[in-house]
Write a structure and sequence with these properties.
This protein is α/β, with parallel strands linked by helices. It has a single domain, classed as Decaprenyl diphosphate synthase-like (Undecaprenyl pyrophosphate synthetase, 3-Layer(aba) Sandwich). It is built from seven helices and six strands; from the N terminus they run E-H-H-E-H-E-H-E-H-H-E-E-H. It has a six-stranded parallel beta sheet, with helices on both faces. Helix 4 links the parallel strand 3 and strand 4. Helix 1 crosses helix 2, helix 2 crosses helix 7 and helix 3 runs parallel beside helix 4. The structure holds 3-methylbut-3-enyl trihydrogen diphosphate (2 copies) and magnesium ion. One 3-methylbut-3-enyl trihydrogen diphosphate binds next to helix 1.
């Protein structure tokens, strides 16, 4: 087991399959999301153990607002409860929380809980947990473009200043390195509007298990798979 060298600095996960897991167990979809929260704990523990520095979890997409209101409310409530119950663990494990997405769309109470946990964990340094909430990559790119255009218009930026490096600094992920490893559970081979810019050179691992079935060992396996890849970045 050579898990201790060549550890990805940033792992991003599209946590998919909660609904199907619930259906398979004859449970309402919300129960699938609840079961998925346990897998989040496992993923954090595995990242801590391996020394991964950034873990980004796709928890709620811009498109997920179109789900039935009852499911959206259940997810928001679950998120609040998760954050409240997880704060002491985050402090003990030295995990800093960040969030990316259109956070102003979150219910006020969810947003307040999120902001509180972000503020409390701000000095933690072993692992940065980034929750993608009300997140859509196209929205992120459009917002960045608007900010850049406004600065060009005001004269703060010159057209010739615009480069991939500059553009990256206008995304929600400005201070976060690009993911090295992108995992999606439930066997779906699509990106679903997640970090389109940032995953340009990420290695992708598709896991067939549904998210509530995902355990620490599955993350170790994905990292082993990553370690077998030869990243060329367009070179030879
Ligand atoms: C992922 O599970 C969680 C969210 C998108 C919030 P899903 O709810 O998408 O589960 P499936 O894909 O319907 O099984
Ligand atoms: C992607 O899963 C979003 C999250 C995991 C939060 P979805 O279940 O929403 O994506 P699609 O609909 O299968 O593309
Ligand atoms: Mg899904």
């Amino acid at each position: 087991m050579k898990l201790h060298n060549d550890i990805p600095q940033h792992v991003a996960i599209i946590m998919d399959g909660n609904g199907r897991w619930a259906k398979n167990h004859g449970l309402p979809r919300a129960q699938g999301h609840r079961a998925g929260a346990e897998s989040v704990r496992e993923a954090i523990d595995a990242c801590k153990e391996m020394g991964v520095q950034y873990l980004t979890l796709y928890a709620f997409s811009s498109e997920n607002w179109n789900r039935p209101e009852a499911e959206v409310s259940a997810l928001m409530l679950l998120l609040e409860k998760f954050l409240e119950s997880k704060l002491s663990d985050l402090m003990r494990q030295d995990v800093r929380l960040l969030a990316i997405g259109q956070l102003d769309r979150l219910p006020a109470k969810t947003r307040a809980t999120l902001d509180r946990v972000i503020a409390k964990t701000a000095e933690n340094a072993s692992l940065t947990l980034v929750l993608a909430l009300s997140y859509g990559s196209r929205e992120e790119i459009a917002e960045a473009t608007k900010k850049i255009a406004a600065e060009v218009k005001s004269g703060a930026l010159d057209l010739t200043d615009i480069s991939p490096q500059l553009f990256s600094r206008y995304l929600y992920t400005a201070d976060i390195p690009d993911p090295d490893l992108l995992i999606r559970t439930s066997g779906e081979m699509r990106v679903s509007n997640f970090l389109l810019w940032q995953i340009s050179y990420a290695e992708m691992v598709i896991v067939n298990k549904l998210w509530p079935e995902f355990r620490q060992g599955d993350l170790f396996d994905a990292v082993r798979e990553y370690q077998k890849r030869h990243r060329r970045f367009g070179g030879v």
